[in-house]
Amino acid sequence: MTTHRTKILILGSGPAGATAAIYTARANLKPILVHGMQPGGQMTITTDVENYPGFAEAIQGPWLMEQMEKQAVHVGATLIADTILEVDFSKRPFTLKGDSGDTYIADVVIISTGAQAKWLGLPTEEKYQGYGVSGCATCDGFFFRGKEVLVIGGGNTAVEEALFLTNFATKVTVIHRRDSFRAEKVMQERLFKHPKVEVIWDSALEEVLGTEDPRGVTGAKIKNLKTGKITELKADGIFIAIGHKPNTDIFKDTGLEMDKDGYLVTKPGTPKTAIKGVFAAGDVQDKTYRQAVTAAGTGCMAALDAARLLEEEVA
Ligand code: NDP
Fold first, then answer.
1. Looking only at Cα atoms, what is the longest distance across the chain?
2. Helix, strand, coil shares of the chain as percentages rounded to 5?
3. 110: CA distance to ligand 1 center in Å?
4. CA-CA distance, 2 to 84, in Å (whole number)?
5. 277 CB under 6 A from ligand 1?
6. Ligand 1 in contact with 32 (CB < 6 A)?
7. Could you report the per-residue pLDDT of 197-250, keeping only the tens digit for each?
8. Which of 18, 28, 8, 25 is nearest to 282 (CA)?
9. Which of 107, 172, 201, 292 has its C-alpha lying 20 to 30 A from 96's C-alpha?
10. Rounded to the nearest 5°, which phi and psi values hold at 130?
């Protein structure tokens, strides 16, 4: 059990955390970055990234995060694998405790714990999770080579996952609760043009159908939300792609303000929370843009504001 004393503690190693680490390390503040169960964050479960500026060809999400991590270490950040379980923001320096038993004492905390995929909450969805129901096509798509899959959702994630799944599956059916997607138009066009893809509009997943022994998905009951009619579809896999939930459970009752969906509230246009010395950056405080590049941008802002605060306090 070690006590780590640091000026800057960064929680989370997605684009926001990595960027905050790079900037604070270059300001000679020797930051410690604690990454939890998913080092590199959501970018590590995506494949082709075509919209992160600076790369003319598509790059891979995990590769990009590896580069950001190496860059942070190269300029002087310390990375620690731990899961923060307890947070005390009642007085500065702040005290945080990790699953490892280690304690972290920090003058400034930058929260960049990100968000994670949401589930529909159906009992059969939970029952078959890992047995044909998945929240990540890039992680599990490979298992559905030569099979038929359903994708639930209508945002960028759903469309991207559906397109990715066409690399493996013989048929990909996208089921969306409305009659239009919210995904980017260029992605939609690619989807509509794809011969393996079918879209079922105005419909919801009602129940996952499957076998007991061995446990596995065989299909789904789909409800048309306009007519109420229920149809059974055959499927070997079902991918849920309906959005994300911020990773803020550990910040409940710490004095940080959260909105109704659990996102951390920051002062508009800044990464500042209501607690002096606590900043929030990336998807944990952004449900509108949620891009790697915007997360990196707010990570940079948090680092600059954190450095400014520490300078003012010394002066
Ligand atoms: P979004 O919130 O954008 O979309 C969620 C989708 O799921 C919506 O179509 C929504 O329907 C549907 N949905 C939500 N809840 C339910 C429910 N209970 N039952 C049925 N359907 C439901 O999330 P995404 O994960 O797609 O995207 C998140 C952010 O990340 C976005 O800003 C997106 O642009 C970005 N992103 C960018 C990528 C890229 O640029 N390569 C790749 C992936 C994501 P409705 O439309 O009716 O609300």
1. 69
2. 30, 30, 40
3. 26
4. 14
5. no
6. no
7. 999 999 999 999 999 999 999 999 999 999 999 999 999 999 999 988 999 999
8. 18
9. 292
10. 85, -5
